[in-house]
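Lecture notes, unit on protein representations.

Consider one protein chain, 148 amino acids long.
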Amino acid sequence: MYDQILVPTDGSEGSHAAAEHANDLATTYDAALHTIYVVDTNVGIDSSVPGTLDALEEAGEHAIDEVIQQAEAADVETIEGVVAQGAPHRAILDYADEHDIDLVVMGTHGRTGLDRYLLGSVTEKVVRLSDAPVLTVRMPAESSDESS
């Protein structure tokens, strides 16, 4: 049913929960697991400060490594990880298209109301625009920063 599964990560608890679901699906369907971290270059990164972009990419590598370690512990056979740059939702959608992803598994932060409107939701944008099905996994309640 699924041959290629993508789990975007930002290193958050919501991403870890999504990765657990993605690992389970990958082992169930003997699918390849892909993971992506996107450095959001649309938020005004100050490139005049030496090492800024490098530090963000290093954080991305760390988040990717955590997902890969989770997948290896779950005996997922094929794992690919990449750090990309750009608008997060666009980079995720482009990766999914380029790699014939069958399923995208993403965490949500559980924000509502004004917080969601002001901060935007990468997951929501991917759900609305993705050609592949998107499974959303809510962050565990005890880790959620929901205030409603």
